[in-house]
Amino acid sequence: MLGQELNNGLHAPVLPRGGHRKPDIVLAAMAVATEREYGLFINGESTEPKAGGVTELSEPATGEPLARVALASEQDVDRAVDAARAALDGDWGRTPPTERSRLLHALADAIQANRKELAELEVRNVGKAISSVKAELHQGVENFRFYASAIGSIAGRSNPIGGSLLFYSLKEPVGVAGQIVPWNYPLMMTTWKLAPALAAGCSVVLKPDSATPLTAIRMAELAGEVGFPPGAINVVPGEGKTVGAYMVKHPGIDKIAFTGSTETGAEIMRLGSDSIKRLTLELGGKSPNLVFADADLGDAIPSSVWSIYYSAGQSCEARSRVLVERPLYDEFVSRFAEAAKSLKVGDPLESETQMGSLVSQEHRQKVHGYVGRGVEEGAELVTGGEPTDGNGAFYPPTVLAKVDNSMAVAQEEIFGPVVTIIPFDDEEDAARIANDSRYGLMATVWTGDPAKGHRLARRIKAGTVGINMPYTAFPGIPFGGYKQSGFGRELGLDSLELYLETKSVIVSTSPKPFNPFQL
Ligand code: NAD
Predict the structure, then answer these.
(1) Among 122, 166, 380, 450, which residue's beta carbon has the most beta carbons within 10 A?
(2) What is the C-alpha to C-alpha distance for residues 280 and 479, in angstroms, rounded to an integer?
(3) Which pTM value belongs to this model?
(4) Residue limits of CATH 3.40.605.10 in the chain
(5) Active-site residues: which are they?
(6) Ligand 1 probe mutation, 2, 69, 126, 180, most atoms within 8 A of CB
(7) pLDDT tens digits for 22-34?
């Protein structure tokens, strides 16, 4: 997911309890999550839900209790929308671009200053490795800085269209933006959504997944502390099928930016159609990673391993289909499997850990079911494939070889640490298999022939194609899908544009009275 692996000086945070963790990690307890309850964040303050409830979160890596979080009801969404609308009609709507830019930088500074707490919350809430979370946090900070600068690019146009007609266009915020975020990158996705919307001057009602809301709530609190006016940012954790659906239908919300599964994206299109809701949909993927026989395997193998097992495969752009040129196939499978086996899987709070746990036991069950299905369909299980013992939702890096692209494991999004390795004959065959998917989010090509890389970049139907480059998302580079991976873009100036409306203003400058029938 990330544009860079960074070491920005964070230290692995620590947990208060448990013989399951190394003593040096357990000693200096922070316990930030368990010491408090998390309310909704509406109109600049933490608040109790009107009719929602409370959810008890536990840590996926240990199964131990983590935090109590308020869940929003439809009434709370109404309150949040009212606050967002009032902000737009009031202080926030009147905030000049230079001040919006300053506030975005101030929020970036606050996230940076509170990075240890945010990192611990994210690691303990999602189960992902601290090394990944550090990089995601860094990108989150950079997102706010990028859009703080990008505010300067918001401008209309004026074209000389001749005669005595003057035209100019204005760029105006879309209005109240409803933003729906999934559980796999709660912190980073929240920054992807908040930063361009606020830069554009929209106010926001953001719904994190009810299982992973902690960092979104904390960032909204920090935004209040650095001076964002009440109502500019509201956070309402809640159930997708009820509260999320209510947001999509809500007449007071002008746009929905959604990241999640393709099935939910389709439902959102249906629910939003009555009110002609503006939509940005970032959906699922089954991204290919093409390895040609002329590739530098010293780069291609570790990068291909990273591209599937980063965040335990719970990434929309995980390169879960590795396509390998036939003469290289057996050697590649064996070297890839060795590299996968050597990954350090374990306590996500330990700095050397490369892969933490999955997000929940239920999700692990789903991932494991897919592995069984792959084997039934004729795939060879080379390594992994058995849930790890213990209370945590751990699953080992798993390799399925001899996969045919028509198998369910090659067509459906498993969203776990399971790679499918598929042979191909030549460039033509590689392009055909790469495009034989309902998804089109990302692809990577490994080749020693630059021209071949560029040819494939044009042929592959995906929103991003990397040539000898595994990373996918940088603050300034648009990210999004072709086909059923969605539409619209996150990141880059493209995302900012999607939070703006264009208004054309036309005026007659003729000294004579305007006669509309004199065409
Ligand atoms: P999901 O679709 O189940 O849920 C995503 C969010 O939508 C959650 O906040 C959920 O509460 C909400 N939701 C669920 N049903 C809803 C409804 N009917 N109306 C409104 N909101 C609803 O997805 P998930 O399992 O949480 O996330 C994993 C999926 O997200 C994967 O498919 C992954 O590929 C995708 N994803 C895509 C990108 C991208 O940028 N393309 C990035 C990350 C994740």
Answers:
(1) 122
(2) 12
(3) 0.93
(4) 40-55+67-283+485-503
(5) 282, 316
(6) 180
(7) 544 443 335 566 6
